[in-house]
Fold:
Amino acid sequence: MSNHQAAISKDSDGSFYALIVRIERDGYKTVIHHYKGRHFKTEAAAVRSTSNYLAKFC
Structure:
């Protein structure tokens, strides 16, 4: 059984980059390919986008 989580990082220019990662039982993290990594102006937009994806597909 694997677990999916959002991985959001802040860039040097103040924007945010969001990915979805799958975490295996052994702790190994893999970026999933269905959700393309995206840049957002605000952290709230990144959280909203990733949470919508997780609710719909994971």
About this structure: The radius of gyration is 12 Å. The first helix runs from residue 43 to 57. Residues 9 and 17 are 5 Å apart (CA to CA). The mean pLDDT is 94.
